[in-house]
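lol ok so funny story. i was supposed to be doing the assay writeup but got distracted and ended up predicting the structure for this chain instead. priorities right. anyway since i did it might as well share w the group, maybe its usefull for someone
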Amino acid sequence: MERIFVVALSALLGGFAQAVTGFGGAIIIMIFLPLILSMNAAPALSDVITMVLSFSMFWRYRKSVRLKPILLPAGIYLAASTAAIHWSAYFDGRKLKGIFGLFLIGLSLYFFFFSGKARVKHSPFVGAVCGLAAGICGGFFGISGPPMSLYYLAAMEKKEEYLGTLNAFFSITVVFNIIARISNGFLTKNLIPYMGVGIVAILVGSTWGSRLVERIDRKTMSMCVYGLMAVAGIVAVL
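and the output, tada:
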């Protein structure tokens, strides 16, 4: 029962955060899931839950999707994430959780000090590098948003193009990630009840966030997310 509550709470908050800040659903979920699951099972469950949000955002902005900027980064991403998912089976679970904690701390520090300031150029090389970084982070930790968000912010002129193309990228890559996690034995039948709870909760959280987005200061909400990431990272390391 405690695990069901943790899954529901993390997905609810993840959906809410993504609706308010435009990102962070997987980050919020992965703050909580490693508390109750291994570092192999947690990203697998997170992928299934967040897939629903990616599909819904892609469908909403489908007319603004640009296909060409997806192809190269997605190809690099899939190769990197498939390798990372396979290699994660050979990592010591406790060490991997400690590495994940350091990753969360680093991510929170980046957002605290460089969010809105960091810029990347739009080029095939940068797209490949961002795809590689996203694939490694997504394969090991189930969090691949930051590198691709930076890249598509530089590549897209309109907000609708950015949201549509980014979520089209995630909709494609998450399906292959899930297949890779199933083939490596990380996504198992005992996670099915958590999948149902998480999917319902993330949709409720997203709806809730969409309705309240005008009443909440985005910067304050973002700072709370970053602070929670840092605390969760310290706990994981300890």
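The two ends are 26 Å apart (CA to CA). The chain has ten helices and no strands.
back to the writeup now i swear
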